[in-house]
């Protein structure tokens, strides 16, 4: 069957009678290597099975074992069984079941491959349960789906533990000389009393100690609702400080009973000694706190307290009666 490197020679034996149904034993010719596809280095030896005619229709079904095969850079079978069937167009459908190495993960996969025509990429997906850990991040309930084609793709799902509790994620694994895993989470709880992160994207690159993170943080207090972008480098342990940046047109209003408002501000989301804190820093040319009481050159540093209110260190200058008074204090 086939030609060139794709040709398989089968030794066939059995009983053949007229037009009745026939099943003949078939064994790959000893000492030969069979490559079902011309664009995938999947080499088979010692395949065996049957050639059958059932109700006038002929079929070829074979089984073979694979010790190892690289299907794509970063995607390899370490041991697998192959079930091979001849298709109507003369191509082969190969169903693989076994152990695979997928980037940083070890997996038990199954799936069927095929080739739409000579010289074209082999297509099909292998899916199954996986295990593995990356950069000190705990991953559980892992499942991988690796799809071959013109551009191979790998998706990963499971549970990820970064903060207070495990959270479900979906991920995209880019394979090559080195791999890059991008994890997406709808929400990530950090700790009791700390707002959860949403729309989280965490990037893990092979050989890199840095774990870039991007997310959103919604700060909802009695005085204002802020949408903040979160960026920086995550670490599973130790102290970290992530940058907070304003998203949209919202203003930071620390207190509902005081006309104190800042349209421009930056901040940080920090973990120090295992405890999380949220802080904002703002400046303003002037702020009028009450009739006749205006601060100029204002700076404000706010810390979100455990009860969800702000403690703000405020400083500025009050020009009065020819004098310039520098004032500072903390408002709660």
- Biggest pleated-sheet summary: 22 strands, antiparallel
Strand content: over 45%
Give the end-to-end Cα distance, rounded to a whole number of Å. 83 Å
Contiguous uncertain segments of 5+ residues: none
Order of helices and strands: EEEEEEEEEEEEEEEEEEEEEE
Q: Could you estimate the helical fraction of the residues in percent?
A: under 10%
Helices, by number, come to 0
Structural class: mainly beta
Mean pLDDT: 90
Radius of gyration in whole Å, from Cα?
32 Å
List keywords for this structure.
single chain, 332 residues, mainly beta, 22-stranded antiparallel beta sheet, 22 strands, 0% helix, 62% strand
Write up what this structure looks like.
- By secondary structure, this protein is mostly beta strands.
- It is 0% helix and 62% strand.
- The protein has strands at 10-13, 22-28, 45-54, 57-66, 69-72, 75-86, 92-102, 105-114, 123-131, 138-148, 153-161, 166-174, 180-188, 197-205, 211-220, 225-234, 240-246, 265-272, 275-290, 293-304, 310-320, 323-331.
- The protein has a 22-stranded antiparallel sheet that branches.
- A hairpin with a 2-residue loop joins strand 3 and strand 4.
- The chain starts with 9 loop residues before the first strand and ends with a strand.
- The mean pLDDT is 90.
């Amino acid at each position: 069957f086939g030609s060139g490197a794709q040709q398989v020679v089968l030794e066939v034996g059995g009983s053949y009678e007229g037009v009745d149904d026939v099943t003949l034993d078939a064994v790959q010719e000893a000492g030969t290597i069979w490559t079902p596809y011309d664009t995938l280095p999947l080499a088979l030896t010692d395949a065996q099975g049957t050639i059958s005619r059932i109700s006038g229709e002929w079929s070829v079904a074979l089984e073979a074992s694979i010790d190892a095969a690289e299907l794509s850079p970063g995607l390899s079978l370490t041991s697998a069984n192959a079930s091979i069937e001849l298709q109507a167009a003369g191509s082969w459908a190969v169903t693989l079941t076994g152990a695979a190495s997928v980037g940083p993960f070890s997996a038990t996969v199954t799936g069927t491959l095929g080739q739409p025509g000579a010289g074209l990429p082999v297509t099909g997906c292998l899916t199954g349960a996986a295990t593995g850990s990356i950069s000190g991040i705990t991953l559980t309930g892992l499942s991988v789906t690796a799809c071959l084609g013109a551009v191979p793709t790998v998706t990963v799902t499971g549970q990820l533990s970064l903060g207070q509790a495990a959270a479900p994620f979906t991920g995209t694994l880019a394979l090559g000389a080195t791999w890059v895993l991008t994890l997406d989470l709808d929400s990530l709880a950090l700790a009791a009393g700390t707002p959860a992160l949403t729309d989280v994207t965490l990037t893990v690159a092979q050989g890199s100690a840095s774990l870039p993170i991007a997310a959103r943080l919604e700060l909802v207090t009695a005085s204002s609702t802020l949408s903040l972008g979160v960026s920086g480098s995550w670490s599973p342990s130790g102290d970290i400080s992530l940058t907070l940046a304003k998203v949209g047109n919202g203003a930071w209003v620390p207190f509902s009973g005081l006309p104190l408002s800042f349209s421009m501000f930056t901040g940080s989301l920090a973990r120090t000694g295992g405890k999380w804190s949220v802080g904002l820093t703002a400046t303003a040319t002037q702020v009028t706190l009450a009739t006749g009481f205006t601060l100029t050159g204002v700076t404000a540093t706010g810390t979100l307290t455990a009860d969800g209110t702000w403690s703000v260190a405020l400083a500025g200058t009050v020009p009065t009666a020819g004098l310039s008074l520098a004032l500072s204090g903390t408002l709660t």
